[in-house]
Amino acid sequence: MRETKHLLIPGDFPAIRRTGIDTLQINLGYKCNQSCTHCHVNAGPNRTEMMSDATLDIIFDLISTQAFKCVDLTGGAPELHSRFRDLVSHAREHDIAVRDRCNLTILFEPNQEDLATFLAKQQVEIIASLPCYTEKNVDLQRGKGVFADSILGLQLLNQLGYGKHLPLHLVYNPAGPTLPPSQQQLQRDYTQRLAEDFNIKFNELFVITNMPIQRFGSSLLSSGHFDSYLDTLRASHLESNLANVMCKNTISIDWQGNLYDCDFNQMLEHPITDEHQTALHIRDLSQNKLEQMSIKTGNHCYGCTAGQGSSCSGALNAV
Fold it and tell me: Which domains does the chain have, with CATH numbers?
């Protein structure tokens, strides 16, 4: 796979600073039951990186002692970690909201038959990947049979109250090197098609711009579209989006416990550092005041501020 870090860091993105830490976004490991073409993590079935018990124990202590509002669990498929449910239960016991970034097909993997019921019982917010409402486009992007299983997963979640009194959000990623369309318009299309075709309900659609890193970045280089895609992101930059980028109140933690300003910096191995340029670990989180620190940026950050903006919760402004 071709590396893009040297093309993105350093960059000329505007300087921004953190305003607080509301959310811990925890990457439990890179193992996944899918291998999506747009994946910025390069996750897949053959990845072996998984968070250790020692690192998880530090996170458990942080959740018990510090005032976070949300724990955002990602991967890979975070549910494949053997202590995923322990972490969810611990956070909920401390009245911290939990988000599960779920690929839907994980609900039907071996030993996950009761996963959906567990998530509903714990009132976990589900953010589910569904890059289109048609079988052809989803299977092209995510693998044969993924669409059919995703629909079954959504129907199961609806039966448990998701999309009604439990939050169920869907995620759209473009299939190629283009900005996503209007989130509002696409949500109307998703709502209509999924209801008419499959009697599925959900709450919100999040459109997320593909980042030119890892698997997607490598494909851009191989196809000769890397420079033109980066030019598109730069040309579409809106200064007003800087106020709402997710890195201002989120800390990303990798499977080894290292700290990053966002999940994308994590994939570029661009960690948060102290005044001596020493990379910080989760054990340092209670010892270092990260609020008001400068956020490490690169040219990939234009992906978050281009057009309607993009974050882990979708567009930053209504278009």
Answer: 16-214+243-296 (3.20.20.70)
